[in-house]
TrEMBL record:
GO BP: any one term: methylation
Catalysis performed (reactions): precorrin-2 + NAD(+) = sirohydrochlorin + NADH + 2 H(+)
All residue ranges annotated as the Tetrapyrrole methylase domain in the record: 169-380
Protein name, UniProt field: Uroporphyrinogen-III C-methyltransferase
The EC number(s) this enzyme carries: 2.1.1.107
One Pfam family hit: NAD_binding_7
Pathway per the UniProt entry: Porphyrin-containing compound metabolism; siroheme biosynthesis; sirohydrochlorin from precorrin-2: step 1/1
Organism expressing this protein natively: Blastococcus carthaginiensis
């Protein structure tokens, strides 16, 4: 039967600790080595030159690099081989040696001459999806991507992957608000949830996509408004988990960046509840970035500090050293600091920050209503009033706030 028929025998190779030889050091070799290392194979690369990434892997001891051309006998002891050079004659020699030694060999330049075809591979935890496209790699990739996307968003439900009975909690950082900015692991957790305890700053559109049997609990904390007590949230997580449910605590940003995530972890741990933390993209970095503002820039700043502005300078419960922050030369990112911005600006100027220091204020970051305002530290209070700025907003102090796309 001709190779283009796509007739193959699908099998998963368990290569952990087994020798694999990759001949070639270019982009194709790099991709193959990455997958082989994920399978915990002992990888040897034979090539006079390799990509910088492969060189880094070899320097770290994760792969062995023979810095020379291929020689007959290089496959001795191997369980699997990859021929991925730019020279068809070398690839043919590797394939011939593999055939003689009964070693399966993937030849990158000639599928018909390969004894094995590499499928399009997707991974979701310990679930591995491999697709052969009947001789058409692009077809295999398209089907693979559709399956992985379905597993990620929950449209393909992998109920067998649910944890053992007894209940658990996953603390998920949902990112700055755009549902596309949650991590893959966060989407996976939501796809298998029985109960979701959600903040208003989390990616709300994802809640609408959950199956109707998933219980959604609104645990929002509105600035100086309606708010569910943290103790109540902790009790909800523990109670539902003890009832055998898989609970996802969905927050905006990152659970451990002013998100009280560690308090929730402590409560679950004290109650003997298994708990997992899924980091999220913090709005302290993501929201300025979405507005074209880097928190660091070569030659301009070597530091950035993230501070909570929910308490003004001088408040007896404030833990912020505003005098030290006023002496900083780098970037200052203020979260939860809309109402306290006038007092903070005054304190920073009073402790040494120049009144004309650039400031950027980004509201509703990552959402369709996002907007960015440019001002100075001295003019910040008037700018907020003039434009009616309300939470959620992130503001950035420092030279980076004055950068434009042109530099």
């Amino acid at each position: 039967m001709p190779p283009e028929s796509g007739t193959v025998y699908p099998v998963g190779l368990r290569l952990r600790g087994r020798s694999v030889v990759v001949v070639g050091g270019g982009r194709v070799a790099h991709r193959r080595v990455a997958g082989l290392l994920e399978a915990r194979a002992r990888v040897t690369v034979v090539s006079p030159e390799v990509t910088p990434a492969l060189e880094s892997l070899a320097a770290a001891g994760r792969a062995t690099w023979h810095r020379r051309t291929y020689r007959s006998g290089d496959l001795a002891g191997a369980w699997y081989a990859v021929a991925a050079t730019d020279d068809p004659a070398v690839n043919a020699a590797v394939a011939d040696e593999a055939e003689g030694a009964r070693i399966f060999c993937a030849r990158a330049d000639d599928r018909a001459a390969s004894s094995v075809w590499t499928p399009a591979v997707g991974r979701q935890g310990d679930l591995v999806v491999g697709v052969h496209g009947g001789g058409d790699p692009q077809r295999a990739i398209g089907v693979r991507d559709a399956i992985v996307a379905g597993l990620t968003d929950g449209s393909i439900r992998d109920r067998a992957a649910r944890p053992a009975p007894g209940g658990s909690v996953v603390l998920v950082g949902g990112g700055p608000g755009d549902p596309g900015l949650i991590t893959v692991r966060g989407r996976q957790a939501l796809a298998t949830a029985d109960v979701v305890v959600a903040d208003h700053l989390g990616p709300q559109p994802l809640l609408a996509s959950l199956p109707p049997e998933v219980q959604i609990i609104d645990a929002s904390k509105l600035p100086r408004g309606r708010s569910m007590a943290q103790e109540t949230i902790n009790d909800l997580l523990v109670t539902h988990a003890r009832a055998g449910r898989r609970v996802v605590r969905l927050k905006g940003g990152d659970p451990f960046v002013f998100g009280r995530g560690y308090e929730e972890l402590q409560a679950c741990t004290a109650a003997g509840i298994p708990v997992e933390v899924v980091p999220g993209i913090t709005s302290a970095v993501a929201v300025p970035a979405l507005a074209g503002i880097p928190v660091t820039h070569r030659g301009l700043t070597h530091e950035f500090v993230v501070v909570s502005g929910h308490l003004p300078p001088g408040h007896p419960q404030s833990l912020v050293d505003w005098a030290a922050l006023g002496r900083l030369r780098g970037t200052l990112v203020v979260l939860m600091g809309v109402d306290t911005a006038p007092a903070i600006a005054t304190a920073l100027i009073g402790h040494g920050r120049a009144p004309d220091t650039p400031v950027a204020v980004v509201t509703d970051g990552s959402t369709p209503t996002q907007r960015a305002l440019r001002t100075t530290l001295a003019d910040l209070p008037a700018t907020l009033t003039q434009h009616g700025v309300r939470p959620p907003a992130v503001w950035v102090v420092g030279e980076v706030a004055g950068l434009t796309a042109q530099g």
